[in-house]
Amino acid sequence: MTSRQETASRGLTRRSALGATAAFAVTLPAIRPARAAVELRLTHPADLSHPVHLEAEAMVKRISERTNGEVKITIFPNNALGSPVEAAQQTRLGAIDMMLLNPANIEALSKTIGVINIPYQFDSYEHAHKTLDVTARDWISDQLKAAGFAWIANFEWGFRALTNSRRPINQPADVQGLKIRVPPELAIKAAFEALGASTQTIAFQEVYLALANKVVDGQDNPVGTTFAAKFFEAQKHLALTRHIYASIMFCANPRTWTTKLNEAQRKIVQEEGTTAGMAARKGVRDNEEANLAAMQKAGVEITRPDVGPFRDKMGPAYDQLRKALGEETWAAWAKLVASARA
């Protein structure tokens, strides 16, 4: 073979190899570098056995699965990152990414969101759900946004019940003269004072000792909370007064929501948050009767008073709350609650 022929042969061989390599490359799927996982922190006040925590755990697992591990949420239950009020402030500032908050915990940040806790405004669980999920949905989202939170979904604590160590509660007069522990929430304080009780604000972690040492006669909480915290061990009576419906809302820091998560991820989080919230609601209601039965077996007397006479005594509380919330907010919210009865 001549020198010219060898050179031509080498060129042809090289072109063939390059062509084969290019053809092979075309047949390979595009390989994208794996996205770094977005790691978020979620805090809430529920204990490990509460439906709120159990469904939150299931939620974060599904979110991780649906995002192929790109969104990882670590849960901090039992107020592990601070009290509900402190956690709300930290979430608003972005130090915490997400939280399950009671609207009453942000009364210092929002003058309007406290309407959700107006006493005796909801006729049933169904009425409360329709108000929060349908008729007032956009209004609530706007109030939370103004307060510095991105609303995602509704969870639930349930209707509050009153316990005490002195007497069964069957009518409003039975509440008169009792000394009741209340959280730092205007609606609860106003409701009991309208019924003739005196109130004392005591931190949640100090309630059991306050009841056991007779610092106060009683306390109010959703049935599941009273059971989980074992407050019933220091109480003789529980009345299903259902004076306030306690919601808990899945919210995020707005910057976390819009910059750490892309649109597809936000959609998944919202869908799974809604699913978890609905499951938590069912769990709360399913557990309520079982918790009541267990407390009754432990010696607690359970009463189920007609709530109508209690509602009729709320005039002074409504006046106080209307003044605090503002007439415009009060009237707008009342229409949303009323429309949910239709």
General description of the model:
This protein is α/β, with parallel strands linked by helices. The chain has one domain (38-339): Bacterial extracellular solute-binding protein, family 7 (D-Maltodextrin-Binding Protein, domain 2, 3-Layer(aba) Sandwich), CATH 3.40.190. Helices cover 48% and strands 17% of the residues. Strands 1, 2, 3, 4, 5, 6, 7, 8, 9 and 10 form a 10-stranded mixed sheet that branches. The protein is globular and about 60 Å long. The termini are far apart. Residues 2-18 and 20-33 have low confidence and may be disordered.
Record keyword descriptors for this entry.
single chain; 342 residues; alpha/beta; D-Maltodextrin-Binding Protein, domain 2; ten-stranded mixed sheet; 13 helices; 17% strand; disordered N terminus
Per-chain topology:
Blueprint: H1 3-27, E1 38-43, H2 51-66, E2 71-76, H3 84-93, E3 98-101, H4 125-135, H5 137-147, E4 150-164, E5 179-182, H6 186-194, E6 198-201, H7 207-212, E7 218-222, H8 223-228, E8 237-239, E9 245-252, H9 254-260, H10 263-297, E10 301-303, H11 308-312, H12 315-325, H13 327-339
Parallel strand pairs: 1-2, 1-3, 5-6, 5-7, 8-10
Antiparallel strand pairs: 3-9, 4-7, 4-8, 4-9
Helix pairs in contact: 2-10, 4-5, 6-12, 12-13
Strand portion: 15-25%
Query: How many helices in DSSP terms?
Result: 13
How many E-type strands? Answer: 10
Distance between the termini: 97 Å
Q: Estimate the global geometry from the Cα principal axes.
A: globular
**Rg from alpha-carbon coordinates:** 28 Å
Residue share in helices? 40-55%
State the low-pLDDT regions, or none: 2-18, 20-33
CATH H-level name... which superfamily?
Bacterial extracellular solute-binding protein, family 7
Profile the largest sheet. Answer: 10 strands, mixed
Overall CATH architecture:
3-Layer(aba) Sandwich
Integer tally of domains: 1
Structural class based on helices, strands and sheet pairing: alpha/beta
CATH topology grouping: D-Maltodextrin-Binding Protein, domain 2
Mean pLDDT: 92
CATH class: Alpha Beta
Topology order in helix (H) and strand (E) letters: HEHEHEHHEEHEHEHEEHHEHHH
